[in-house]
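name: query_chain
kind: protein
chains: 1
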Amino acid sequence: MKPYNTTFYDEPKREYEEEVLVLEDTAESHKLVVHNDDFNTFDFVIDCLIEICGHDPIQAEQCTMLIHYKGKCAVKTGSMDFLMPMHEKLLSRGLTSEIV
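structure:
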């Protein structure tokens, strides 16, 4: 049997550098919120989030579950100019959304 390699554990007090992106609460930081309704299906909402908001299928499904069980979900963040076209497309598909 080979001896256990302990080189990884020789220095338990290693220092790590990391960069953290901090989003400041500015006028450019808005949220696109989708609200629950009683007539759109889960599949329809998932498809809209994928097509309009650029979500991957898992993210769209998770947001749809939050919309259903919590009543709403912030599906995208960004500037007003970035979110407005998505908001208008969601409204045109019969979804209830707002930018906050």
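note: The first strand starts at residue 30 and ends at 35.
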